[in-house]
Batch of 2 targets.
Target 1
Amino acid sequence: MFAYIIRRLVYGIVTLFALSLVVFVLIQFSGGTPLDRLKLNPRMQPVIAQLTEQWGLDKPWYEQYFIWLKNFVTPIDVPSEPGLTVVLFGKLGIRSWVAVAAGVVAIGYSVATFFIRVKANWWRTFRAFSIIGVWVAAFWIAKSRVVFALNWGESFRGDGAVWDNVFGAAGNTFRLGLTALAIALILGIPLGIYQAIKQYSFFDQMGTMLSFITFSTPIFIIGVMLQLILAYQLERWTGVKVFYVAGMTSSGYAELERGLFGLPSLAQWGDVIQHLTLPALSIAAISMAGYSRFQRASMLEVMHSDYLRTAKAKGLPRRTIIVKHALRNALIPIVTLVSLDIAFIIGGAIITESIFGWPGVGRLYIGAINAIDYPTIMAVVMAIGAGVVVMNIVADILYGVLDPRVRYD
Amino acid sequence: MTDRGSAAEPALDVAEGISAEPITQWDLFVTRLRRHRLATIAFFYISFVAYVALMAPLFTCEKNDTFCGRGPVEMSLLTTVIMLAITAGAIYLAYRAFVGKLRGAAIALSLVGLVGVIFLISSWGFLDIPRVNHYADQLPDESGRILVNIAPRSSLPLGTDDLGRDVLSRVIHGGRASLAVGIVVGALVALLGTVVGSLAGYYPGVVDQSLMRFTDLVLGLPLLPVAIVVGRVLPELRFLPGFLKQGAWGIAVLLGLLVWGALARIVRAEFLSLREKEFVEAARAAGANDRRIIFRHILPNALSPIIVQTTLIVGTAIIVEAALSFLGFGVRPPIPTWGGMAASGAAIAVRGFWWELVFSAGALITTVLAINFIGDGLRDALDPTQTIERK
């Protein structure tokens, strides 16, 4: 098992390496340099010359690549000056400690679940959903930036350290992505289960049709339609601004009254929800369609299995059969699907964030691409790539844990 | 089981020994596909879209020549007769394909031709609808005004956009990008996925290991971020020929090269299980060489997952191309694409000019939906273990 994980990790590192090489070479062809926007101003000549030398833009690309690679995996020396927020256990506020605790608990918990054998029936389902605990921990860590910093360089657009930018944006993207995931799970799974129970009913047919349509709709069309109907038209009809279409909070967010202990107050929560709903819904819609279809298929498979026929033959009530016998096994396969979905959610977030002006990784990426900002582009690509690699491994491991017939070799 | 008694069921003929013609796999396939009503409708819809997109220059304008915006296109009698003939033939073939019994080539022919009716109905020569605008440039009307943001009306069936361009012409031309993506990605994925998957599945050891590591690597690349980078630099690549830089073809090739991994895995799994089957062993015992076993014995049996998976990947690729164009990293304006039109349509839809967004998005959604329905229908039709009780 451990050999398997190690081998997968090695493959993952090779994949990331290839990814970095491909993207880095591609950026070289972008037909411009990051300093082009300075060229319009003749007084900028010495600055351009200095920056070109400082960033090594005059060197051949392979040399630039190796410099980037070397810096990319090198930790920053612990800086003494205040202001740099990302230091390994440097300045820890209460939120950071929560993040550290959550991370430790989640990682320890997920490791422990591989070894602990509990006879109880609920344990398998619970263990399967422990992945969500890992997600929450990752969210907190990304948000609080309590990790040691790597030397990812300065942004070529002049907006500070890439590490800070990426992890600041990652927190926002996780806020969006986790909300979308929660909506998709809470709505999609019961929908699929209900469809399977009422197979071929009107509701089932409608649900299948709807999820087919949603699945065939590009995410940007869903986002734009939500903006037009639920924001603009709703405001026009009712005269009340229910949902906002841009940003994470209103400009007056900080002036709203604070809640107890420095936590957000009810008014602030409401403001956040008004901003969060539409982008989260547009990501959730497609995932939801996928989950409900998948859940329906897996539930149907279980419902047609022999042990369920036995349960029926024993004369158990229908409710017991579905809740106690069918549901537990039918919920297992979706766990792997959820962990594989991270790539989709991040991809969806790139599009959704640029529609809704959400200051997350996706918008950072689009801005960096337009400005040919190498360090930011590379950092975002590598962060997303690492996420995909890790979640793929997690999905495979979970699959093996949940289904004892799978063997690793 | 409802259709057991109908004349369209070949199995009945076999059972009673009436039919002199042999029942091929193809007949069984068509029978099953025909029963999937949505897939059948989707099939015709896709051929319609493909036909209109392919023939786009015939009924929209390429240049600001005298035809454009100045009344109907003059179609010669000969063109009209030819079009009528093609259409009649296509309708007959389509009828035979889905109502009677027909072989594969005829069905393929019917696909291309069937929608000539729609073409004839919509071709301006018949209906005398003046076309107003070229798909890329505005064209003033008789009094010299440029018609900006005109709501749909009889002379402009889908209205004009914020630059005064005819939305119908642009929707029709936009289909070409999606079509290019569909064709190129389908071909590339089917080719690469099948070759890599079958080699890896048939030759264990070094070949399998190295090919599958490479496949894992391609699968590990996050699709959208990489596609955005490539889309950004594509027009700048000097060594590429022009048609790959400008239009949708370059994007299509790029997407094809990025998404074949899933199919390769499926084909490999299929080969791994088929390789151990008795019929392959029998072929080997009879002295067949590797090439013959792969092409004559294993590949035909692995065809159905290849076809289904390729169809589904094509749907995804069309969506990704539209998303790239929407973000501005795909096909560059003024070349129309459905994704790009949705982007510019979304900007003006806020002011109440909904038509560009709705019609481009509608074309995109219905096309992808039709492809997914076809994939669903093919999956049902190609699965020999499936019972016919469904639907």
Target 2
Amino acid sequence: MTTAPSFPRPAVSGPGAAPDPTTGAPEAQGPPPPARTRGTGRGPRRRWLRAVVLAALVLATVAFVYPLLWLLSASFKPRAEVFDNRLVPRTFTLDNYVTVWQEAPLALWLGNTVVVTVLAAGLVTVSSALVAWGFAFFRFRGRGALFGLVLATMMLPGAVTMIPTFLIWNQLGLVGTNVPLWAGNLFASAFYVFLLRQFFLGLPREPFEAARLDGANNWQMFWRIAVPLCRPALVLTLLFEAQAAWTDLMRPLIYLQDSSTFTIPRGLKALIDQFGPGGESQWEVVVTASVITTLPMILLFFLGQRHFVEGVATTGSKG
Amino acid sequence: MTAADVAPSLPTPAAGGPRATPSGRRRGRPSPSERRERNAALRFISPWIVGFLVFTAWPIVYSAYLSFTDYDVINDPTFVGLENYREMAQDPKVALSLWNTLVYTVVQVPLYTIVGLALALLLNQAGRSAGFFRTAFFIPKMTPPVAVGVLLLLLFNGQYGIVNEVLSWFGIQGPSWTTDQNWIKPGLVLISLWTVGSAVIILLAALRNVPNDLYDAARVDGAGFWRRTRAVTVPMISGALFFVVVINTIAGFQMFTEAYSAYFGAGNSTYRNDAALFYVIYLFQEGFQELHMGYASALAWLLFVVIMLVTLVQLLVSRRLVYYEGEQR
């Protein structure tokens, strides 16, 4: 379960259908199965079972996808119809988008979020790859202990370091800017170090031996050989961190004060406060801003769909 | 030193550690080539070392110190001994937020895991279409938690929400999920199930690694679906199940964004909601809104201890329950 490059190779265990063809086999050959296996009517029973499974899956899909469609549809409805729960708006309008655009500096917020997201994802990928390589390629006394420390920091709840970290940025006069939202990523992140190290460990050694004979130094071997070979894992790191940075609310709440510096989730929270339940109850504004906050993440997902799904699967098997 | 000195560390992941070094020069001074290799490694690792010292080690020490002080950021910290901890013991909001957090976690984690497992089992039967459904299940996970909070308020709205509308088809009068104190936490648990997709993917991956011959053997022995699930599937994927449980427990204890976005507004104390006051929300309010940094640090330490204890208990229990195939790591 530790073999690293688990997602380049296409789903080892095959499509989910794999168990099915085999089911008949053991019973077809050899001694007939004992009568108590409800052997009769296996064909129709199978088909019936498949139909139930399919129905359940379709129902679940509706439950998972409907809320997002509901949100999207509601953003095109006038205020009076937001709650009518119709999937296709009775009255189609773009007014909500115009209103949101006028009420809030959305372009600014989106711009801020893009800057933070790109910096956060880029920096954490580079720094974590360097550190992971340090742990994967070299051997030195105390390596196991040091790597154990890396893993231990993953267990540390963020709440414990939250206040002193704020005080550091406060001391540096950077509270109120977006620097605290990404600068910490210069120093690698334990989770990604763990993930990338697994991938580096799975690399074949021949290219490195060849490169060393050609006189390549450590740095060149890292950049020219290891990094290109581990592209899928690096893309995965980029995608995971981009999602984390884009959707984060807590740190923007802590560090950003002026509306012009907000990221889009922080801005959405401001709009909820102003137009939501405690405010003016103009839900169509909140709904539309929610769509604008969410849509880039859906796009990101479809851009890197395979990476997300395979990546999440590997995080589990490594745990 | 040649390639042979360095390269073999790559393909031997399992060795992972000092044990892997040639036993010849275990104790003595490192040879020049060993030193060179160590220094090269440390250069690569240095970003993490700096980050660890500045953003982990020092904050841990400093927050321990702060928890014994009064500190409002503007004036210097004043030492108050155990005063913060004594205050916490009497603070009704500490008890309330701890209770809320515990109730939420205790209900959410098992439900989330069971629903995740059920969907993964279904997907495992889906054949060719599994890929499509897997994607559909995962998409909600991409929704920013702030927007999940918004969806909670909208879909679970007591009068107009779609959840209550669906319930009414079956003749059930749905509760006021977002305003009734008794129904706020159930609402939060339910909306958290909407983002169960990542657990489904993890568990499905584990399911697909269960060898088929185990099922065949069980079938030959006459085990039905439930029996096979209980006797083969669950033990074989117990590692992944355990992972989902631990990760979600830690996340549950730190529940913040969905509840904060739905039920707490900046400078809007009328909308403050006791049933959704989770521990980290209270910590956040004390630290960053009231600027009681000392008190908030003490709160953080209590959370740290609680999470550590719970995780430790889970690890101990898992030793008895979790089966790792051919395990050595």
